[in-house]
Amino acid sequence: MPMPKPRRDRSIPDRLRVLLVGGGGREHALAWKLAQSPSVEAMFTTHPSNPGLAALAQPTGFDFSVRELYRLAQFVTHERIDLVVVGPEGPLAAGITDLLASDTCAVFGPTKAGATIETDKAWAKQVMHGASVPTPDARIFKDAAGALAHLEARETAPVIKATGLAAGKGVFVPKTMDEAAAAIHTIMDGDAFGNAGRELLIEERLQGPEVSIFALTDGRNILILDSCQDHKRLGAGDAGPNTGGMGAYCPVPEKIFDAKMMATIQREIIVPTIDALRRDDIEYRGVLYAGLMLTHAGPKVLEFNARFGDPECQCLVQRMQGDFAKLLYASATGQLASIEDFEQSNDAVVCIVLASAGYPEKPTLGVPIMGIDEAEAMEGITIFHAGTRIEEHGPKAGQLLTAGGRVLNVVATAATIADARTKALAAAEVIQFEGKQYRRDIAWQAVGEKVRTAP
Ligand code: AMP
Ligand code: GLY
């Protein structure tokens, strides 16, 4: 087949052939929004085993593996893909953008060097310190003995973090010094964290509400999306173990997060970080996700991620107006300044995660799911598939089954956060599977329930 002509003119094409990388609820939400873009001519998915993705995108025809990205490069050439949208951090850390971005193919998501802002918390701290971005004080240790000696000199239990990628499991917020010491041993001894556990941070523990901020950027221009709040603990009242996220909502109301705070974050956190990366020769293109704590001394960065949040993304896409594919293409090709019509709806959005029995430690898989059609038919409800599959063989053939810890995302839009939550809860009830776990108090800070504190 003839090689495609390089597109020297980098204006934003009116027809885009899109490849979406990733297979969870976040990616189903991205596919849902991309499918609504007038510019999308064809869309492919690396994960057609997710029934939500299979309904919206064509399969690539081979199994995705970060160790075999060359197969994706061949696919991109063969299918004349214009835009690759990368959902999760794993492929970014593996250098998917470095490999696939070319004159003819734009990749939404930073290069491997850019993704280091997420994959190396010690380096992220250095970037923040260099740019005077507010973040909790931290010390880096490469061995357990040094970390334990430092712990002894402290009066209260600090936060302990593995510096590398640890699938959300590398952060410990211990209540006691003994627990803090145990966390140090967990990270440093044995091989539980692999390379991610070669180094750890001991970080000052902060207090305050947490907010997630998402900045689309092309390395120079910045477009800040909605503020969101995630709910990482498994149980009501922010109790129980940390999870990948049990629900989210947006936008965060003024009583917690006002326009002045957003302006401060843009000025003191987002812009200096993007500028600092550029000084390090990293033109960061994609989304920069700042996990912030709003302390008495102002907003501070707990972490940066190089991708959309999951489940925050499932909320964000509900309010975004306009051609999403063109927006992501503009970010990937340094043309964000040309997007003039970016708007967000006035909806309030709540996402409730339905999780499997045993999540997060040991989720039960393969359980039949009922009631999705009924839930989807409810007004203002969208269901995204996070960990489901359709049984292909045997007596259960054709049945939708659980295939992960986080199973489904129930997303509701309404005029207020309270109404959106009521709707989402009604839909969450209608969906049935054995052992279903979910939080009924998502968005409690916005709805004005009694303020709780993590134990
Ligand atoms: P991270 O992955 O760094 O965002 O951390 C996961 C969770 O741990 C955050 O969402 C916070 O709830 C908590 N956390 C992380 N760092 C701190 C800190 N310095 N002080 C208090 N809580 C923290
Ligand atoms: N919502 C948390 C994360 O995506 O890391």
Topology:
Blueprint: E1 16-21, H1 25-35, E2 40-45, H2 51-54, E3 58-59, H3 69-78, E4 83-86, H4 89-93, H5 96-100, E5 106-108, H6 112-119, H7 121-130, E6 138-141, H8 144-152, E7 159-162, E8 171-172, H9 177-188, E9 200-203, E10 210-217, E11 222-230, E12 233-235, E13 239-242, E14 247-250, H10 259-279, E15 286-295, E16 298-305, H11 312-319, H12 324-332, E17 348-355, H13 372-376, E18 381-385, E19 388-390, E20 400-402, E21 406-414, H14 417-430, H15 444-447
Parallel strand pairs: 1-2, 1-4, 2-3, 4-5
Antiparallel strand pairs: 6-9, 7-8, 7-9, 10-11, 10-15, 11-14, 12-13, 14-17, 15-16, 17-21, 18-21, 19-20
Helix pairs in contact: 1-11, 6-7, 8-9
Bound molecules: adenosine monophosphate and glycine.
Question: Which short descriptors sum up this protein?
Answer:
single chain, 455 residues, alpha+beta, Rossmann fold, Dna Ligase, domain 1, 21 strands, 30% helix, 24% strand, binds adenosine monophosphate, binds glycine
Structure description:
The chain has 455 residues and is an alpha+beta fold. Among the domains are: 16-117, 3-Layer(aba) Sandwich (Rossmann fold); 137-203, Dna Ligase, domain 1 (2-Layer Sandwich), CATH 3.30.1490. The chain has 15 helices and 21 strands. It has helices at 25-35, 51-54, 69-78, 89-93, 96-100, 112-119, 121-130, 144-152, 177-188, 259-279, 312-319, 324-332, 372-376, 417-430, 444-447; strands at residues 16-21, 40-45, 58-59, 83-86, 106-108, 138-141, 159-162, 171-172, 200-203, 210-217, 222-230, 233-235, 239-242, 247-250, 286-295, 298-305, 348-355, 381-385, 388-390, 400-402, 406-414. Helix 1 (25-35) links the parallel strand 1 and strand 2 (40-45). Helix 1 (25-35) runs parallel beside helix 11. The termini are far apart. Mean pLDDT is 92; it is low at 1-8. Bound molecules: adenosine monophosphate and glycine. The site of glycine has 6 residues, from loops.
